[in-house]
C-alpha cells in the first residue's frame, strides 16, 4: 500500500494540472498529545530504533512513544533547551542548554543526566554523525560549530563558520552541512578533519533556517525566511530548484521512503516538495496544521509527521517582513500533533 501511495497518488498530483490543487489533503491529523511544561519549544527528533519522539522545550526534553502517544518521561535540568541528538548504539543522548552553554549527556533508558560538557554561546541544533562518532552542535552567537567525541563525552574542536549557523544535517558518509543564516550560505564540513570543504551561496534564499537531506541522491533542502525552499546539489552546491513554501519556516525534514521534503511553518501550514527525480522537484498542495507549528520530525516507516505548537492567545507583528505573525501562547498548553498520510 505504501508503494502504491507513493507512485500512484503523488505521481498523479505532480503530473496533473490545476486539478491537483483541488485534491484531497495529503495528510490528516490522527492524534494530539498534551505535553505541558515550557512553551518555548524548538527542535523535535524522531528515533526510529526506539520509536520515540524527543521534544526540546524550556527546561526539559519530553519523550513520547510514537506508537501510543504516551509520555515516557522527561530529561530535566536543562536551561534553554533547543536540540537533541541520539546515539542508540551507546545508549546515550545529548541535549543542549543555551543559557548555560552546556550539553547534557543522558541515559536513553532512565533519561537521567550523567554528565555535562561545555558548549558554545547560543547552543542550538544538534546532530549525531555515526561514522565519525561525533555530535555536532551549532553556536548561533558563537558563529561556530562544536564537535564532541560521543564515546568520551569531550569537546574535540570548534569550527569557525564565518556567520551565524542554524540547522545542520549529516549525510552519514563523511560530511556535515550547515545553514549560515545571516550570510545566505550553505557550508560543508568534513567529519574526518572537522574542517570546511565547501562554502556555497544560496541565491534567492534569504535567511536559511531549516535543512533536510536526501542522503541517497545527495540533495539538500534549505527552507528560507522569504518563504522559499532552495534545493541544492550536495556535491557541487548547484541550485537545483527554488520553490515556494509557507511563511515562518523554522524546520525542514525529508522522507526518503516517499521522496518528500517538508517545511513546517508558523502560518499553520506544512509545505510539501516532491522529489520526482534527483533533478526535478515539484511543490504539492500544502497541509493545514495549526498556527505556530514551526518544527517537525518525520517517521519514514509509517510516514507520520510530528509537529509541536500551543494554544494561541495573541498574534503580533511578523519577525520578518511579509512573514507569519509572531504568536503568543498560553502557558502549559504545549502539544504534539501527529499527522498520517492519506494512503
UniProtKB/TrEMBL annotation:
Keywords of the record: Signal
Signal peptide positions on this chain: 1-23
Domain of life: Bacteria
Annotated SUPFAM superfamilies: C-terminal (heme d1) domain of cytochrome cd1-nitrite reductase
PANTHER family, sorted: DIHYDRO-HEME D1 DEHYDROGENASE (PTHR47197:SF3), PROTEIN NIRF (PTHR47197)
Protein name: YncE family protein
Organism: Acidocella aquatica
